[in-house]
Fold this protein.
Amino acid sequence: MAIILSNEYVATDIYHMKVAYTGNVAPGQFFMVRTWLKEPLLSRPLSVFNYNEDVIEFLYQKVGEGTRLLKNAKAGERIELQGPYGQGFPITRSNYVAVGGGIGIAPLYFACKRIKDKYPRKHLTVYLGFSDQPYMVEAFEKIADDVHVDVGGRITDLVQVSKDDVVITCGPEIMMAALCRQIPEENTVYVSLEEHMACGVGACLGCSREGAQGKNVRICKDGPVFNREVIYR
Amino acid sequence: MAIILSNEYVATDIYHMKVAYTGNVAPGQFFMVRTWLKEPLLSRPLSVFNYNEDVIEFLYQKVGEGTRLLKNAKAGERIELQGPYGQGFPITRSNYVAVGGGIGIAPLYFACKRIKDKYPRKHLTVYLGFSDQPYMVEAFEKIADDVHVDVGGRITDLVQVSKDDVVITCGPEIMMAALCRQIPEENTVYVSLEEHMACGVGACLGCSREGAQGKNVRICKDGPVFNREVIYR
Amino acid sequence: MSNPLATTFAGIPFKNPVTTASGTFGFGDEYANFYDLTELGGLCTKGLTLEPRLGNKGQRLYETPSGLINSIGLENPGIDHFVERIWPHLKTLPSVTIANVSGSDENSYLEALRRLNAIDVPLIELNISCPNVKAGGMAYGTSPDSAANLTAKAVAVSRHPIMVKLTPNVSDIVSIAKACEEAGAVGLSLINTIQAMAVDVHQKKIVFDNIYAGLSGPAVFPIALRMVHQVCKAVDIPVMGVGGIATWEDALAMMMVGATCIQVGVMNFIDPYRPIKIIEGLKNYCEEEGLKSIEEIRGILL
Amino acid sequence: MSNPLATTFAGIPFKNPVTTASGTFGFGDEYANFYDLTELGGLCTKGLTLEPRLGNKGQRLYETPSGLINSIGLENPGIDHFVERIWPHLKTLPSVTIANVSGSDENSYLEALRRLNAIDVPLIELNISCPNVKAGGMAYGTSPDSAANLTAKAVAVSRHPIMVKLTPNVSDIVSIAKACEEAGAVGLSLINTIQAMAVDVHQKKIVFDNIYAGLSGPAVFPIALRMVHQVCKAVDIPVMGVGGIATWEDALAMMMVGATCIQVGVMNFIDPYRPIKIIEGLKNYCEEEGLKSIEEIRGILL
Ligand SMILES: Cc1cc2nc3c(=O)[nH]c(=O)nc-3n(C[C@H](O)[C@H](O)[C@H](O)COP(=O)(O)OP(=O)(O)OC[C@H]3O[C@@H](n4cnc5c(N)ncnc54)[C@H](O)[C@@H]3O)c2cc1C
Ligand SMILES: Cc1cc2nc3c(=O)[nH]c(=O)nc-3n(C[C@H](O)[C@H](O)[C@H](O)COP(=O)(O)OP(=O)(O)OC[C@H]3O[C@@H](n4cnc5c(N)ncnc54)[C@H](O)[C@@H]3O)c2cc1C
Ligand SMILES: Cc1cc2nc3c(=O)[nH]c(=O)nc-3n(C[C@H](O)[C@H](O)[C@H](O)COP(=O)(O)O)c2cc1C
Ligand SMILES: Cc1cc2nc3c(=O)[nH]c(=O)nc-3n(C[C@H](O)[C@H](O)[C@H](O)COP(=O)(O)O)c2cc1C
Ligand code: FES
Ligand code: FES
């Protein structure tokens, strides 16, 4: 049980929650989260938007019952966090390009921060695509070298990568698949995937899907971040 | 949807809630109450402990999940009230004796108040029995002519009635049945009964039980307050 | 504009497909305090038997996760009381009143149906699926032969159309549905409650005097939906979908898998206005989707 | 003091009656990060088949009121992989490992069992009740004859004791339980998931590629409890109670109606520590009630 420190409106249906939490957390990892007792039955997976000084942050979109209950939770109330779970974004000494679509920007922020913390001299370009309203853009502007924003169009049309750039991306799968097609094979691309999850730890096989090598991968345990080669042919 | 004005601890597991509400309410009636959305499925029946100036009050005991959620509700939060339902205590120009056991004192307080409001010159004696801790005794002392309290014994041993006294009672059924046996047939006795309820309005027949005349009565709709003749042979 | 929710079930016009389930709505009076009953498509009466019944003794209700177990045991005033005292009022309602009929043996079923011939009830729901009575009830509903046999006799005896209410406590609901169809049922309703049990571990006792009782409520919706889909694929007569319907989306799901009407049961208890809210929801849906008639989505997922 | 939770199931000692249900616990590794698996009475492996399987395509999970529908479809690495790669680790656990075995036809069941003869797995759970595969699975579990037939052959082929896992999707679970008992099963486990369905009304589509899938979780507990009671009254072999168990009270209720062990399924997902909490709860109960052994309450409500 953790305590909610704040839970604020960011943009239409987008909220930003801070929770008191101490532990090791890697960018791209997620927690199974619940503020309710019994209904709905399952906890909800949420990526880590940021973590430092014993505060974990989530950026989330209200889409259904679970996220509606989340947004109604108030500072001081309790939240159950299970995790952190899953494999995050590998961070190496490289130039990075981060491409986020909609609420998919959530795990990228923490990844970008860690990249710049670890390798401040390396170049970091961020592309953020939104269907109608941009949010959290300034936060990215504070840490990245370049931030490109698109609203209502296709963010992938803007993306340019150089040789040796490592690309990290999270957003609608159709966006990530398109991105992977347009980025040269030589570049390493890490995609962060979503699936319906029950356990979050690799036990139920609910989030399992066929990967590129004909073998199944579990999004929760083998991912949610994968080298694109594991997923797309 | 009504708004909770206050919700306070009274004694071990006993709470007192005030809710903004306007309407016609008779003593002995109850509401189907819930502060939660889906789980538990059913609303909970609670008698009216008091009502005036657009404030309805409940006195309740935490016994399970529903009442635990109730006690956790805070001032300013919403509560769903369906009702008032059922038949209350008839109030006539008579001397009254009220006999309450444990949390069964809840509907009696409102009844006693109405009795004294309507017929201030009539005599009202109150017997309150508790298994270990007394509560709300002073509240009764403010309105009744005599208040007798027993803790840990049998309240029915204290009760004395005169000819023409009308008796009203609520508490464990074993207490009410004993009381009815000891009170002369000539006295009118009104008992307030409990049963598991789903609808509260007489539709599901979940609270139906056999009455004294071999016909079934629905506690929620035909009661919860009955002339003892309808219930006990 | 015409009413997009207007529905025909076995030739009977319903102003909308939303009805209230037997045993959860009394004979309507209790809910008449909340809204005008004529807003409903129809209502099913409490299960009627030839003789009046007091129902089961002991605790009758038990709450479970998203469900309710009941052991009412067909408490009802008997068919004659219904015909003489209740029907005269019900018949004035423009909603379709559906008389739910049970019995303890073939004769009591058939005699009850005969007495209903005296009144103009538009539709009968033959309950061969009540898990809460010792004799009759579910026993008829668990084999195709016994279901068909009773249905055929009921159809022969009654001058009213017969809809058969099926029990979910079977391996193969489709075979029973088909048997009833062949025996002359004009429609089917499903599901009745699922046989279940509750234990009070602290008191070390079984909650219900009858040991087993019937589970319903939102918990059973996914099972009911599956069975309605299976049955609608297999029969040509119309089906009323019942079981755990809580929202207009649930009602719509039932219709998408083929139900012509739906019945709201336990959710009446939680919110007396729920059937009305479901009607509103369906109405808005038709508007937003530009449907002239709700029929346009019926069975699209078959 | 001796361990009040020590239990014997078909002659096999369990340190406590709490095990984890097949398909909800992988092969244990995932939960080994939370607690020492040796605290469990036992664990059932994911359903194993002769050949490796990728499982079903499309969405595999859908949440319902107090329940979860799954359409995993027996994704598993195959029996040889289990024997060679997984068993060497599992066998070092002092908890009882129960190998859950499925097949698409008789031969594939029996060949899988033959290969398990190579290892010393203490107990096999013969899954004749999976609603999520097209061939085999539940088909064997819905008639007494086919259940008995497969069980008898399994018993003949396997050198390990066979517990049969029953499906709730039947009219008469008792007849199937008895048939399995007569065919030589040493025990029974029930229930597997209940066949159910989900519809996405907004997208106008059926959620699962396979159309139907299996419901479990707290919603089904009252149904599972009823069936365990029915079966325990009718058979002499021990029973593992499964289905919606969320608390130690649920576990206790299962044992009061006759279950020897219990299995925790979906609740592992909601709270990885749940089986351990259930063990603690049962331990405290024994202390408070002054029970020397949990056996003292077993079957008191039969
Ligand atoms: C690894 C991972 C990380 C995520 N991180 C974030 C994040 O940081 N911020 C954010 O806003 N969202 C994130 N999501 C999506 C988020 O989990 C869903 O939006 C959320 O579960 C919806 O729950 P709901 O009850 O509001 O919606 P409902 O639609 O009512 O949920 C019904 C069921 O579907 C599941 N579900 C619905 N949408 C999704 C989805 N897109 N992915 C997986 N399951 C879904 C729910 O968990 C639930 O079991 C993440 C998903 C995954 C898998
Ligand atoms: C007409 C009426 C008036 C009541 N007035 C009051 C009151 O003023 N103050 C008060 O403290 N209590 C009152 N009760 C009892 C109160 O309704 C129960 O204590 C409450 O429902 C328990 O809910 P729970 O979830 O906490 O307990 P749980 O035991 O978890 O409840 C499980 C189920 O059993 C039902 N239930 C449990 N105990 C009772 C009971 N004694 N009577 C009826 N149903 C029960 C619940 O409603 C629920 O459906 C009244 C009951 C009735 C019938
Ligand atoms: C309290 C109660 C009483 C019921 N009585 C009857 C009955 O008399 N006849 C009948 O056919 N079904 C009866 N049912 C079953 C319902 O009509 C319905 O089939 C079932 O509850 C499933 O729907 P639901 O989940 O919406 O409640 C009863 C159900 C409940 C909860
Ligand atoms: C995701 C999931 C996968 C399952 N896989 C199997 C399986 O492979 N073999 C099997 O016999 N049962 C399987 N089951 C059924 C469970 O073992 C158990 O019988 C059922 O879920 C009821 O218990 P519960 O309500 O506690 O989950 C599975 C259940 C779930 C939820
Ligand atoms: S969510 Fe259970 S395996 Fe991934
Ligand atoms: S609670 Fe439904 S009839 Fe009384």
User: Anything to note?
Assistant: Chain D has a mean pLDDT of 95. The interface with chain B takes residues 65-66 of chain D (CB under 8 Å). Residues 32 and 38 of chain D are 9 Å apart (CA to CA). The radius of gyration of chain D is 18 Å.
